[in-house]
Amino acid sequence: MSRPDYESIQTRPAPDGLTVPELYTRMTSRTPGWINLAMRVRDRIGRLFGLRTIDDFSAPTAMQEGSTVHFWRIEELGDDRMQVSAEDHHLIVRAVLERNEDQFRLTTRVHIHNWVGRLYMLPVGIAHPIICNTMLNRALTPP
User: Fold this and answer.
1) pLDDT in tens, 98-110
2) A Pfam family this protein belongs to (predicted)?
3) What Rg value do the Cα atoms of the chain yield, rounded?
4) Which parts of the chain are beta strand (E)?
5) Separation CA 75–CA 12 (nearest Å)
6) DSSP at 3
């Protein structure tokens, strides 16, 4: 695929024994209320442009390659790497959550298709790293 229109990378130290699927489950089950509210606002505005809804995050019940969890299609799933994607008429998002030795890395890449995608990414490009950093920090903090 061509060079992304947007890219965001977050890294965190990885505690011993925590797998990528476990981290993803923690990230989505410990999402703060303000992020879920932001997703609901996004969904309401997005419906005006025909975008798919995200809805709230919650702990996934089962994850396997080829299945859908939240709004993501799981492309690859293993203890050390999870690749997901979401495609809509305005853009394609691909995210990789991986563990390399003692570090977790979340990489998100967006390919924009049209003016709706460009408009969409104006606020999302600012909010995305804040949301990802918050979700990672909460997931890696003991409950």
Assistant:
1) 999 899 999 999 9
2) DUF2867
3) 15
4) 6-13, 68-69, 72-77, 81-87, 91-100, 103-112
5) 23
6) P
The sign of the CA dihedral 71, 75, 78, 79 is negative
pTM of the model: 0.89
- Reported confidence tier of residue 1, pLDDT bands at 50, 70, 90: low
Helix (H) or strand (E) holding 60: none
Provide the residue type at 132 as one letter. Answer: C
Distance, in Å, from the CA atom of 42 to the CA atom of 88, rounded to the nearest integer, reads: 14
Domains of the chain: 6-138 (3.30.530)
Between CA 138 and CA 117, with CA 87 as vertex, the angle to 5 degrees is 90
- The burial of 29, by beta-carbon neighbours within 10 Å (0-12 exposed, 13-18 middle, 19 or more buried), is given as middle
Can you tell me the distance from the alpha carbon of 99 to that of 38, in angstroms, rounded to the nearest whole number? Answer: 28
